């Protein structure tokens, strides 16, 4: 009895140590400055919502709703704070790590579950794939992993599938490609079902669960006449990303589907020849579809790889469990599954892979130097982004002028300022590149600024392109009052 308890206690201590190590790796992220552009956009939109705004109507960005609602809730509870934002992201990662453990324990055993948890925790906490940031991928892997866990633990019964479908939909309401993992589970249901009728029933139940969050979403936007705006922002606008693929777009668009095809054909082979597809084959499908999501747009941002971390960790831990016998089918599968993954990851994310270890060391050195007092706050901020000190200096200017909470328009790419200064944005676009990226964006902003002229107009060096309508408004109604870290500040003339 004591032996059994001792083993159990040791196992739990190792699990707790893995979670602690994961948190420790994420600890410096709690003290990052307001620097990353996407986080700033989410923050600016969320702040507008907390001011009583309406998503896509008074604050616009090209993502589905969940990331803004998440930021809104965090800011509502804790205020605009990088510490709390990244602490919530860390808690989400730790919760996902625990779910990965539960899945692995069910499928490949307790010891390998610890391996899967460790691999996941380390991967998602490295700057190598920008896991330190509170972006859509970090939040969406929680509902995806939870969906898989519930389905696996309840042996893919109907109740588990309707819940899993809803969770996959929630994941896709963080980022569109979160829906791909639902296809992975759907295909596994085909391999696992005893007959076609059973598969159809389970597929319908999974689809019904997926439909529920979208019905709620459309039901919210419909009475506000914003369904079209929601669809354009969250889905139609995404086509712009697809047009920004690198020069090897044709190769990427073919190769990214090869792991999916390989996993499906291998599953069919096992189902036809052996009449059985092992449960860990779900990890293959999950990994194939999650990497498809990472590669989907062909863009080179490292955080896209976060989507693939749960499945990668589970599959990595499975290898020692599975006794691989070398045969022709396995060799063909391995080549067609793993080679495209290695090739595409190296091709698309080359900068992160080659510079990742060095960046990780610099990241920690920067944090340790700042924490030990060897590095000034300004120098610490600059190592993240040179816009940070501009944001903080302009924020101090607005505070000194008692302009926090006032109407401010920023023609540039420092959206964090809106959130920090609690500024009211007279236009729904919080960054200049959206104004150029949206049809009639410039005309819309010009009309908004003329109808409700802001107290201040700020033009940092990071603005994109010349905006004639804005320049006319500035020349006719505003006075230049300051230049701070390259950012020009114009105040509205009294009486106008």
Automatic annotation (TrEMBL):
It comes from the Bacteria. InterPro entries: LipidA_mod_glycosyltrf_83 (IPR050297), RgtA/B/C-like (IPR038731). The keyword Nucleotide-binding does not apply. One of its GO terms (biological process) is lipopolysaccharide biosynthetic process. It is a multi-pass membrane protein. Residues 62-212 form the Glycosyltransferase RgtA/B/C/D-like domain. It is found in: Cell membrane. It holds the Pfam family PMT_2. The chain crosses the membrane at residues 12-31, 73-101, 135-151, 180-197, 204-222, 248-267, 279-296, 302-319, 331-349. One of its GO terms (cellular component) is plasma membrane. This is Glycosyltransferase RgtA/B/C/D-like domain-containing protein. It comes from Candidatus Curtissbacteria bacterium GW2011_GWA1_40_16. The lineage of its organism: Bacteria, Candidatus Curtissiibacteriota.
């Amino acid at each position: 009895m004591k032996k059994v308890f001792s083993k159990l206690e040791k196992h739990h201590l190792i699990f707790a140590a893995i979670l602690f190590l994961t948190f420790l790796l994420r600890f410096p992220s709690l003290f990052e400055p307001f620097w990353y552009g996407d986080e700033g956009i989410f923050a600016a939109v969320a702040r507008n919502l907390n001011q009583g705004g309406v998503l896509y109507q008074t604050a616009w960005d090209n993502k589905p709703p969940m990331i803004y609602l998440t930021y809104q809730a965090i800011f509502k509870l804790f205020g605009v704070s990088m510490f709390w934002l990244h602490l919530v992201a860390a808690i989400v990662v730790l919760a996902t790590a625990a779910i990965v453990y539960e899945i692995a324990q069910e499928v490949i055993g307790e010891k390998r579950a610890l391996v899967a948890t460790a691999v996941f925790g380390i991967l998602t906490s490295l700057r190598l794939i920008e896991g330190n940031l509170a972006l859509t991928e970090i939040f969406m892997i929680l509902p995806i992993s939870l969906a898989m866990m519930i389905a696996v633990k309840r042996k893919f019964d109907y109740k588990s599938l309707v819940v899993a479908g809803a969770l996959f939909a929630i994941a896709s309401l963080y980022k569109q490609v979160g829906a791909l993992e639902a296809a992975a589970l759907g295909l596994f249901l085909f391999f696992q079902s005893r007959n076609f009728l059973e598969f159809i029933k389970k597929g319908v139940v999974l689809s019904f669960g997926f439909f529920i969050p979208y019905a709620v979403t459309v039901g919210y936007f419909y009475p506000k006449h914003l369904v079209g705006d929601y669809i354009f922002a969250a889905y139609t606008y995404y086509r712009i990303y697809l047009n920004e693929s690198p020069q090897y777009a044709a190769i990427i668009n073919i190769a990214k589907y090869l792991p999916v095809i390989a996993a499906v054909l291998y599953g069919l082979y096992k189902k036809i020849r052996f009449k059985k597809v092992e449960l860990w084959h779900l990890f293959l499908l999950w990994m194939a579809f999650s990497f498809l999501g990472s590669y989907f747009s062909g863009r080179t941002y490292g955080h896209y790889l976060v989507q693939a971390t749960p499945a990668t960790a589970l599959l990595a831990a499975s290898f020692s469990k599975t006794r691989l016998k070398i045969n022709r089918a396995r060799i063909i599968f391995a080549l067609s599954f793993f080679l495209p993954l290695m090739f595409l990851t190296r091709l698309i994310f080359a900068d992160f892979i080659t510079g990742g270890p060095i960046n990780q060391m610099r990241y920690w050195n920067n944090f340790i130097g700042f924490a030990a007092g060897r590095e000034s706050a300004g120098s610490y901020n600059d190592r993240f982004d040179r816009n940070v000190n501009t944001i903080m200096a302009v924020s101090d200017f607005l505070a000194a002028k008692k302009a926090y909470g006032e109407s401010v328009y920023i023609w540039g790419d420092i959206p964090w300022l809106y959130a920090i200064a609690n500024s009211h944005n007279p236009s729904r676009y919080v960054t200049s590149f959206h104004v150029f990226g949206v049809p009639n964006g410039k005309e819309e902003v010009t009309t908004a600024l003329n109808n409700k002229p802001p107290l201040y107009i700020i033009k940092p060096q990071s603005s994109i392109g010349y905006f004639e309508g804005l320049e006319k408004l500035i020349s006719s109604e505003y006075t230049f009052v300051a230049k701070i870290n390259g950012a020009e500040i114009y105040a509205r003339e009294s009486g106008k």
